[in-house]
Amino acid sequence: MVVAAVVVLQLALVVRGYRADHKELAFQMFPEASTWEASVVRVTADGTRIPVTEPWSGYTWAALVPSRGLAHPDRRHHADAGLDNQIAFLDSALDWVAANTPRDHETLYLEAVVTRWHNDDPPTTEVLRSPKRPEAAP
Amino acid sequence: MRLVDQVDEVLGRRVSMRSLALLRMLVGPVVVVHLWPFVSDALDGRTYHDTFHEAYAPWYPELSPGPYSVLLYVGVVAAVAMTLGVATRVTSAVTFGVVAYNVFLSTTHFHNNRAFLMIVLAGLAVGPCGRELSVDEWWHRRRGLPPLDTSAPAWPLWLLRFEACVLYGASGLSKLLDPDWFGGTVTHLRVVHHRADLGASPLPDWALDLLLDRSFHTFAAKAIVLTELAIAAGLWSQTTRRAAIWLAVCFHVAIQLTAEVEVFSYLALAALVIWATPSTRDRTLAVAPTSRLSRAVHQLDWLARFNVTVPPAPAAAPGITGAPTGRRDSRPTAAVPVAVVPDDGLPGFGSGSPAPGPASASAIEDGPAPALVTDPSAAPPLGDGGGRPAAGAGSPARARDRRAAPVPRPPVARAGTTGVGSAEPVGGDDDGPAVASADEGSAVVAAVGADQSAEQVGPSGDRSGAEAGGSHAVVLWDRDGSVRTGRGATLFALSRLPLIAWFFLPALLLPSVRRSRRSAVESTSAEAGRGPEPPALGDDPAAGAGGVAENAGLGARDQSVSAVSEEDEG
Question: A with B: how many residue pairs have Cβ under 8 Å apart?
């Protein structure tokens, strides 16, 4: 029974990997040669757009988001686990930074303009935004 | 029998857990390497709390930095203890728990290599992997307690095998279904993206040109995909398993050289031990005790595949006399190992080899009668303390067949091959686990139909045995009853050592060769300035290569070389 359950669960996870952003236990290794880069900015309440490459309120982007190839989004990177996975991480990272920078009272939200190259396809662009931060409310 | 019943029988069959014990020892250091970056950060006062992380579920319990750091330290300690086999049931479970908890703490912690590590640790946690090669076993023996049962139901092993195949199969399938991958676009682009790194590497220009050639990747990508799928499929059949394992070794070495995959390569290579046939002492190697081959097998036979005994006398071994050809005889002519191996193939997957149990019995029944028939009364009955049925039996019918067969009972050899454990698993049958202890003399050797017991051959007897064996310094009885002699037996024995153990072979053998050569030169310096040939691998350095043992005139030299060698070895 245990063996059958594990086998079924594992096979289900493999199938799930073809649709999920994070392909846990789907073992799709080296899936793409895709690359991406993003221009990440802080948008203040007055509409000013400030790149996160500049430190703010004692924070730096690279220190807050050091993993999964997100530390320097302004450089073109290989999407290690696929583009969908990478963009999902970046989207979550914007949310996390917005929610975990309590000393920052000027940023209304964070925004990333992402350029993605799926293998050798032409590039596409999309915009990601964090939720608005109550700390920046006027 | 219905398929479900057959699968159930295979999963419930008691088999040796030796491979899991070895895997446990290999995976422990991998866990330490995996956890170390987390521990290092914790020692510096940093944890995942300080940086971007994303919980899988809001209900997943999170620890504050202090307890989390302590948990990581506990994980490292548990991994070390698991490697040593200290309180193995507890430490393997704790190790798995810490690694799994940490991986599932955040989506950012998840990588394929960590997922596979978690799976392997789960297998070790549910399988009794601490009854051999462990401090637990040593402590148990030291207290004079009865030997631990080293066999267990096979399902944890089969689950790990399934997961290992999923690893290769799912990876290969995803590439097969992706036109960009199968067409070579992905591999080509990856090389192009790393062109600068490749240019700085010591690769020759022609290799660089080849790697940057788009058409090369049209074929290379297909080769990679087919390699992964071939490994996944090939591991299931005993016929193709060895080739699949070698393919996997080459594959992982290539990955390690070309990509950053954390602990994946080491882990995947270590996990290959689960494909060893789950039985122990099912091959008998007759070799002079002082030979390098004997030493190598004693020290590197970590999967306990061999019983090691002394070579038989030729008079008692009519079937194996003659020049050593290294040829594998298809039928046993002189002896068969009594240990028979359960066919561990799943029903329907088609084991390429004959079912060992019945085949062995059949070979015994059909073999040359004069050489094989011995006095049954001289043999300990099956299942007694001296010579229990050695391998895990398959079906009850198979077990009954073995009992019914007129198996010639061999003399008992005290011949454990490793210095780690005396209680070696030899599988079990349907009447219950059959645990035999090599120290108890139950490592059964069918020795050439003669009454000469390996036990009765002392050090001097060993020498005479080797010499009497003449050119047959090495004789090997495989589990299917076939016999190999000479270099063929030597190469076969070495090839059946764990792959990882091979890395230790040069360290073990080369100094020995140098010492042996030096000793031989010193001891023969009085002889006409003729230096001796280095003894061939597998031959006794004393009884030695070039038919030294057969040359009675060199007996004194023979013994002096042996004495020096043994002294050097300490």
Answer: 91
Nearest to B115 by CA among A121, A29, A129: A29
Bridge partners, A56 (sequence order): A59
Q: What pTM was computed for the model?
A: 0.70
Two structure tokens written together for A73: 């989004």
Residue at A66: amino acid letter: P
Of B131, B147, B446, B491, nearest in space to B297 by CA = B491
Q: Is B155 on the interface with A (CB under 8 A)?
A: yes
Compare CB distances from B193 to A64, A78, A97 and report the shortest one's residue: A78
pLDDT in tens, A10-34: 999 999 999 888 888 999 999 999 9
pLDDT band with cut points at 50, 70 and 90 for residue A50: very high
Among the ranges given (B18-22, B148-152, B182-186, B528-532), the one the predictor scored with the smallest mean pLDDT: B528-532
> CA-CA distance, A66 to B435, in Å (whole number)?
53
d(CA B286, CA B387): 19
A120 close to B (CB below 8 A) = yes
- The answer to whether B179 contacts chain A (CB < 8 Å) is no
Go through B414-437 and write b for each residue having 16 or more CB atoms within 10 A of its CB, e for each that does not: bbbbbebbbbbbbbbbbeebbbbb
Nearest Cα to Cα of residue B164 among B17, B265, B243, B271:
B271
